[in-house]
Inverse folding.
């Protein structure tokens, strides 16, 4: 425990230590390996607020679990799916364990050849904890990240571990010498379930009777609490005779819905006084002198209760993410970030989560409300499924314009455009100028670009040795952003119309010498205002043809507003009433041309 607390205190100061701790600890949301990737890209060294917030929550979550659940991280251990040795090479009392070395890059396999402890939750009887020998067997080298049990012996090991089997049960395996119990292999309990009472002709009254009987005898939680409190009070611990009886009763209570035999908790087994670590506020309590009590009191509530004060919104723009061409995507990125933040805030309100960092990481310290789920675990599970779907949706939004035709994969030939768009998403989230633009409740959110964390990290790594250039931290002129945004919108319309015979091209060019008054376009690169390259996935703009296109284009909508608007800067003269075409001055800027063309 002391080693664990020492490690998590260093994760904010030492990036290499943070990566080691994160890679050795998995979580259901898959946040830890993502955090490790972000740190390896150098963002923690540059004091990125997003990764600092996630690391703070990671630390607080560990402290909270330590106090409330006595959850201690064990480096020399694994939580593995149980399978049977089909090669018949393991002897009785032997197991085979081969795991990925999680503290490395994930390419090194480690075969355990030590004395190990194996158990399965819930664990009540002393015989549920088995000490076995892990061995190396070449015939089993194809099995990774599972615990392989021997098929030999008078009784299989899984059945000794709380009546487990191999139909999907998970087992904890420890090979830390400090965790090997002094007394090995207490005789296991018999977990054979009682035979159910058979009724040949089931009537509705039988169903009613069973339902009422189940409600009256649903005492599984009461038995578990009595076992824990009794083991703490007794000098013999779980080997106390009352604990052995309670372990048997717990097994019967688990099987009760199938067997119909209730577990009767006698008066002498009922506990009315509980140790402090069980946190029974409505019951009489005492200070536990055993290890769980010491662990509970070693963590002060203030270490995690004031977690919100540790979170920051002070963004620092990393100039490594300044990429050529990013201006093209900034206008769209602003709109998308606004939509993303609004949707994320709605998800937070719906789930009862207070902070952005909590909901995107899964390290939820405090719930504002109880959901429809029966337990906090179920509530957390349903919330993280919603978050996973949310992130996937926004990643697809980013990648959709880069997908290969007829395939659902990203075309990496468009890498330059992908990086430019990713950099734009980062810019609108982190640049001080952009953050000052958004005064909404969710304006301080930072997670928008991290739904594509891999692209962001790749750009940062590629530019790690770039010399610090203060000019790259300057805000991009608004005129440039508006002009590039207009080009982007025009290109998107052109892309939407590509290959659709039912639609006219977005820009049509008329040959002045052609007597035919009908518009035609063969998408020749010699006379297109917008030129699309299939190799790069980029649109380029032919400025001279763009000017001609605007002059020749039939404007169907009424331009009276343009003529009378105070924003008319003189580059656009009144519409010709006979042809309904705008008359363009020769010195009109590309921005003005774009606005007319898009109208």
């Amino acid at each position: 425990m002391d080693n664990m607390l020492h490690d998590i205190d260093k994760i904010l100061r030492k990036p290499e230590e943070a990566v080691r701790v994160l890679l050795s600890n998995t979580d259901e949301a898959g946040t830890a390996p993502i955090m490790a990737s972000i740190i390896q890209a150098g963002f923690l060294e540059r004091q990125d607020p997003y990764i600092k917030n996630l690391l703070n929550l990671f630390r607080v979550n560990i402290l909270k679990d330590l106090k409330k659940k006595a959850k201690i991280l064990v480096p020399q251990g694994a939580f593995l799916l149980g399978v049977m040795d089909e090669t018949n090479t393991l002897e009785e009392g032997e197991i085979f364990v081969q795991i990925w070395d999680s503290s490395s890059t994930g390419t090194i396999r480690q075969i355990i050849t030590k004395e190990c402890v194996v158990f399965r939750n819930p664990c009540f009887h002393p015989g549920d904890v088995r000490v076995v020998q892990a061995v190396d067997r070449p015939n089993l080298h194809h099995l990774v990240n599972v615990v392989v049990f021997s098929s030999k012996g008078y009784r299989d090991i899984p059945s000794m571990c709380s009546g487990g089997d191999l139909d999907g049960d998970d087992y904890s395996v420890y090979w830390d010498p400090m965790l090997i119990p002094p007394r090995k292999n207490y005789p296991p309990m018999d977990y054979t379930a009682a035979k159910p009472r058979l009724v040949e002709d089931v009537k509705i009254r039988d169903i009613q009777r069973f339902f009422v009987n189940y409600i009256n005898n649903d005492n599984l939680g009461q038995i578990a609490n009595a076992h824990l409190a009794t083991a703490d009070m007794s000098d013999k611990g779980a080997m106390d005779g009352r604990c052995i009886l309670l372990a048997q009763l717990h097994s019967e209570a688990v099987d009760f819905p199938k067997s119909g035999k209730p577990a009767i908790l006698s008066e002498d087994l009922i506990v009315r006084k509980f140790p402090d670590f069980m946190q029974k506020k409505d019951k009489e309590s005492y200070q536990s002198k055993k290890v769980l009590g010491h662990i509970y009191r070693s963590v002060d509530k203030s270490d995690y209760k004031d977690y919100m004060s540790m979170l920051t919104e002070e963004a620092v723009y990393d100039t490594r993410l300044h990429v050529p061409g990013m201006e093209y995507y900034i206008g769209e990125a602003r709109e998308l970030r606004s939509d993303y933040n609004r949707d994320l805030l709605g998800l937070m309100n719906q789930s009862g989560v207070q902070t952005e960092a909590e909901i995107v990481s899964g390290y939820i310290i405090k719930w504002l409300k109880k959901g429809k789920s029966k337990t906090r675990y179920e509530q957390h599970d349903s919330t993280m499924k919603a978050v996973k779907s949310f992130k996937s949706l926004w990643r697809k939004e980013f990648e959709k314009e880069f997908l290969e035709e007829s395939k659902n994969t990203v075309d990496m030939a468009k890498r330059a455009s992908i990086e430019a768009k990713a950099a734009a998403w980062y810019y609108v989230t982190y640049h001080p100028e952009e953050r000052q633009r958004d005064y909404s409740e969710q304006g301080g959110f930072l997670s928008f670009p991290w739904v594509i964390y891999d692209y962001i990290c790749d750009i940062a790594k590629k530019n790690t040795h770039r010399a610090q250039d203060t000019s790259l931290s300057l805000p991009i002129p608004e005129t440039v952003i508006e002009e590039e945004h207009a080009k982007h919108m025009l290109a998107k319309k052109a892309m939407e119309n590509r290959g659709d015979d039912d639609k006219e091209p977005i820009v049509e060019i008329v040959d002045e010498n052609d007597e035919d008054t009908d518009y035609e376009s063969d998408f020749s690169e010699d006379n297109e205002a917008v030129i699309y390259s299939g190799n790069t996935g980029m649109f380029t703009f032919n400025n001279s043809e763009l000017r001609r296109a605007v002059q020749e284009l039939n404007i169907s909508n009424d331009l009276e507003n343009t003529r009378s608007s105070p924003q008319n800067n003189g580059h656009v003269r009144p519409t010709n009433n006979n042809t309904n075409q705008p008359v363009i001055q020769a010195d009109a800027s590309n921005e003005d041309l774009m606005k007319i063309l898009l109208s």
Summary: DSSP finds 20 helices and 13 strands in the chain.
